[in-house]
Design a protein that fits this description.
Helix content: 25-40%
Strand content: 15-25%
Number of domains: 2
Strand order of the largest sheet: 1-2-3-4-5-9-8
CATH class of the largest domain: Mainly Beta
Largest sheet: 7 strands, antiparallel
Structural class: alpha+beta
Shape: globular
Order of helices and strands: HHHHHEEEEEEEEEHEEH
Distance between the termini: 36 Å
Number of strands: 11
Number of helices: 7
Length: about 300
């Protein structure tokens, strides 16, 4: 048996051979999305058990696993079903000896596939309505955007996401208020997964087959909030274009961790609170935040 045939045989043994994507029907698209997620979850589980990959590649694999899960959810696959797929992948990986020749061959295939990926410094993650822009960069002169999404709300503008400064990543919102308004606080409101297991998607608000972001937020009774712990004037590397003054708000690390666990189809709210009782709300699509966050962990070579 030649090497190519041996690799194909190993892929079938590990359950990695059924991942071709054909746009034939919603059913086949869902099947392909499930297979893709299974493949990545399987290799992540095998790596966790057998330490197959160095940290750079392991982080890249985690990114594609998160992205595959998001694609499967968008394809209409139930979250419980994906949890079962992940469990099946872990069981399959657990049944393979770490010194298995077949496992080694599949690992080599994964390494070859990720060779170019680890050198990327920029990547966009399009969602249903919005896009996360990921840039692996650091700065010693001020915060720079690593993962960001922009939004408009009324006449105001927002850039939200992860920044980095001297190796420290932070979840930041930078807002420009057209009328120069000055809120006394800012908070993130998102689904509390302990109160609501599934994303709330109000199809009644759909237009052109797309649910707007305000139809993707969880009812208030099943949400949790993260209050910004710091307000500051953003440096030029964070400030959006334009002459309007900007205000920046930093949120605790727990907010980023919670955001990464949400369904990519749902939205969160960034609320700015004013002393007259007014609340101005911007909507951010969760999208592939988790995948973008994992991408940032892949160090440049």
């Amino acid at each position: 048996m030649d090497m190519a045939s041996r690799t194909r045989s190993a892929a079938r043994l590990m359950g990695l051979g059924a991942c071709a994507v054909f746009a034939l029907s919603p059913f086949s698209a869902r099947a392909a999305a499930t297979d893709s997620y299974y493949e990545r979850a399987l290799m992540s589980a095998a790596n966790a058990r057998c330490h197959l990959f160095e940290p750079n590649l392991a982080a890249a694999l985690a990114m594609t696993e998160a992205q595959a899960r998001g694609a499967a959810l968008r394809a209409g696959i139930d979250e419980d079903q994906l949890d079962q797929v992940a469990e099946r992948a872990r069981a399959k990986a657990g049944g393979q000896p770490c010194d298995s020749r077949d496992l080694a061959l599949v690992a080599e295939r994964v390494k070859a596939g990720f060779t170019g990926f680890t050198r990327l410094t920029r990547l966009d993650y399009p969602g249903d309505l919005k896009t996360w822009a990921a840039v692996r960069q650091d700065s010693t002169t001020g915060r720079v955007w690593n993962l960001s999404q922009s939004a408009t709300f009324g006449s105001d503008n927002l850039t939200f996401g992860l920044t980095q400064y001297k190796g420290v990543k932070e979840l930041i919102a930078v807002a420009q208020f057209a009328d120069g308004a000055d809120p006394y606080a800012a908070r993130i409101v998102m689904r509390d997964r302990s109160l609501s297991r599934r994303a709330y998607l109000d199809a009644r608000l759909a237009s052109g087959g797309k649910i707007p972001l305000n139809g993707r937020v969880t009812p208030r009774s099943a949400t949790k909030s993260f209050l910004a712990d710091t307000e500051f004037a953003p440096g030029q590397l964070l400030k959006p274009a334009g002459k309007t003054p900007a205000l920046a708000y930093r949120f605790p690390p727990a907010a980023a961790a919670a955001l990464a666990e949400l369904d990519p189809r749902e939205a969160i709210q960034i609320e700015f609170l004013f002393s007259n009782g007014v609340v101005r709300t911007a909507y951010i699509e969760v999208g592939d935040f988790a995948a973008g966050r994992a991408f940032l962990m892949v160090a440049q070579r």
